[in-house]
Amino acid sequence: MYMPKISGMRGFGFLTSSIGASSVGVTCAAALALPLALPAAAVPVRPAPATDRATNSVGLGAAPALAGSTRSLPLVPLTHERVHGVAPEQGLYRQGVRHFSLVGVIWDNPGTQLHGQVQVRTRSVATGKWSGWQDVETHNADHGADPGTAESTSGRVRGATAPLWVGESDGVEVRVRADTEVTTGDGRTTPTSAPLPSGLRLELVDPGAERPPAGSPADASRTGGGMDEAELSVSAVNADLAPLGAAEIQALDKKGTERELLTLRADQVSGAQQAKPYIGPRPRIVTRRGWGADEKLRERGFVYTKTVKAAFVHHTASGNKYTCSQAPSVIRGIYRYHVKSMGWRDIGYNFVVDKCGNIYEGRAGGVTKAVMGAHTLGFNSDSMGIAVIGTFNSAKPPAASVTAIAKLTAWKLGLFGANPKGKTYLKSGGGNLYPKGKNVRLNVISGHRDGYATDCPGKKLYSKLGSARSTAARYQGR
């Protein structure tokens, strides 16, 4: 059960007394006399299955419009054959559709896995040519809110593949085929007649346009930069680090970061002796406003846990065919897919990293706070999720991305006193690797597969985590 707790703006979330009494709290920033936003209802009304779910958001006052859309198209049988009443091959072909840049396939029951192959090909707006067939990662059940939480039991959550970034397109063809055999744990294959999940739909996501450049930080800090209430609440929880409406949180050197943390600790624990903290320099972080998050998409309010004891590293499995200048669009697409298509309250990851090493704020609630994500099913409490944009099963992750993981974890884990090279215990919330309630010993910097039986974050990225741990510890001064 989630107990609502309201905490003020001053200080980092792990030091506020309001969080210490409960593992989870729901809060909205109370700074600047903003009206408090109540959490969404426990069981929101599920939207009717419309053929076209387009959402355009228009800010109040001077806030710019961030038009984006999600078009949801039901798949149709491609064969007369039926397995338990369901066609084992489904798909569709469409030309001349509203422009989109990211695709995925969803289905009704989030507890049902898609045992099969999903492939898409798309037509480029720029060239008018069709791509080759591309595989879409089907095993996405390992991401999501922990069982029994308000987010997982909202009634809006759906099963889904990973999203795939395809670039601006105006035509699509998709085919979904059920497996005819499965591989058992000992490596043998056996025939299967498992049907495809019910309610298969293709999601075509337009991430929307880039946000126009904001005014000066000084003006934004005084006026809110024309932001509406939802935008102000997201920006306000980072007000200790950047002005309201800022597109980025600037980097801070190690001494400045240490002074910042020691000052905060002195404020929170009066008269306590202060030891020199192990913490890495604060890295530059692009805020949600900086990558153009439409704050009207997510649920209102923020959800926190007690602390951050571990970081789980992921890949987005959205492909590697993007440029660094496109990264904000990719993140907007993933955000929209997580919320509008999969039914989550916000983007699942706490932070996102691109191939150039840029770090982006993920789920709303404050970059210094213990924000509960939906990244590692069963281990979202007292942890954070970092996703590198790309697919790294066979492709090597860029060195800049691995360095960014080290910089981010050295700083964020340092806020909570965690050693990047150390071990910690997390209690499982339930999953396919560890039963609910089991205390599991994990690396402080773990891969997604350490908490759930999955390929994520890909073999090549997973192999770089040892380097990230050592580098992060060095940044902390250990």
Could you give the topology of this structure?
Elements: H1 17-20, E1 25-27, E2 53-55, E3 68-74, E4 76-77, E5 89-107, E6 116-124, E7 134-136, E8 159-160, E9 164-178, E10 181-183, E11 189-191, E12 201-206, H2 217-223, H3 229-236, E13 248-249, H4 254-268, E14 285-286, H5 288-291, E15 302-304, E16 310-315, H6 327-341, E17 351-353, E18 359-361, E19 383-388, H7 399-415, E20 423-427, E21 439-443, E22 445-447, H8 459-462, H9 465-476
Parallel strand pairs: 16-19, 16-22, 17-19
Antiparallel strand pairs: 1-15, 2-3, 3-12, 4-5, 5-8, 5-9, 5-12, 6-7, 6-9, 10-11, 13-14, 17-18, 20-21
Helix pairs in contact: 7-9
Q: Which labels suit this protein?
A:
single chain, PGRP_domain_met/bac, Amidase_domain, 478 residues, Lysozyme-like, 24% strand, 5-stranded mixed sheet, N-acetylmuramoyl-L-alanine amidase activity, alpha+beta, 9-stranded antiparallel sheet
User: What would you call the shape?
Assistant: globular
Largest beta sheet, briefly?
9 strands, antiparallel
- Output the structural class: alpha+beta
Stretches with pLDDT under 50, minimum 5 residues: 1-65, 217-223
What is CATH's topology name of the largest domain?
Answer: Lysozyme-like
CATH level-1 class of the largest domain: Alpha Beta
How much helix, percentage-wise, in residues? 10-25%
Count of DSSP H/I helices:
9
CATH architecture of the largest domain: 3-Layer(aba) Sandwich
Query: How many domains in all?
Result: 2
What is the terminal-to-terminal distance? 39 Å
Give Rg in angstroms.
22 Å
Number of strands: 22
Strand content: 15-25%
- Mean pLDDT comes to 83
Pfam families: Amidase_2 (PF01510)
GO molecular function, one term: N-acetylmuramoyl-L-alanine amidase activity
GO biological process, one term: peptidoglycan catabolic process
Domain Peptidoglycan recognition protein family: 283-431
